[in-house]
Amino acid sequence: VNFPDYSGYPVFQEFDMPPLPKRKVSSARRDKRRAHDALKVTHFVQCSNCGEMRLPHRVCPNCGHYQGKEIIEVKED
Ligand SMILES: [Zn+2]
């Protein structure tokens, strides 16, 4: 029987391996990678208007001021 010459054609996909890591990541290497994953405590700055602690670059939730101006009205209960 005369088979056609497939030597120039790529191998069919079902015979290929999926992309896999070449070697196992050791537990030490994995844990070292995760050493920086813990969330840090957010730092606060003091509001220049009311002195309350607030997040930097945010309107003060206590008095509604930002950069010396009242941006939002704060409802008091
Ligand atoms: Zn404030």
Secondary structure category? little secondary structure
- The largest beta-sheet arranges its strands as 1-2
Compute the number of helices: 1
Hetero groups bound? Answer: zinc ion
Compute the gyration radius: what is it? Answer: 31 Å
Q: Which geometry do the CA atoms define?
A: elongated
Mean pLDDT: 85
* Poorly predicted sequence stretches spanning 5 or more consecutive residues: none
Q: How many beta strands in the DSSP annotation?
A: 4
Oligomer: single chain
Description:
The chain is largely without helices or strands. It contains 1 helix and 4 strands, in the order H-E-E-E-E. Strands 1-2 form a two-stranded antiparallel ribbon. Strand 3 and strand 4 (69-70) form a beta hairpin. The model has no long low-confidence stretch (mean pLDDT 85). Bound molecules: zinc ion. Zinc ion is lined by residues 47, 49-50, 52, 60, 62-63, 65. Zinc ion binds at residues 47, 49-50, 52, 60, 62-63, 65.
Give the secondary structure arrangement, pairings included.
Layout: H1 27-33, E1 45-46, E2 53-54, E3 65-66, E4 69-70
Antiparallel strand pairs: 1-2, 3-4
Bound molecules: zinc ion (ZN).
Residues 47, 49-50, 52, 60, 62-63, 65 line the site of zinc ion (ZN).
Summary of the model, kept short:
With 77 residues, this protein is largely without helices or strands. It contains 1 helix and 4 strands.
Keywords:
77 residues; little secondary structure; two-stranded antiparallel sheet; 1 helix; 4 strands; 10% strand; binds zinc ion
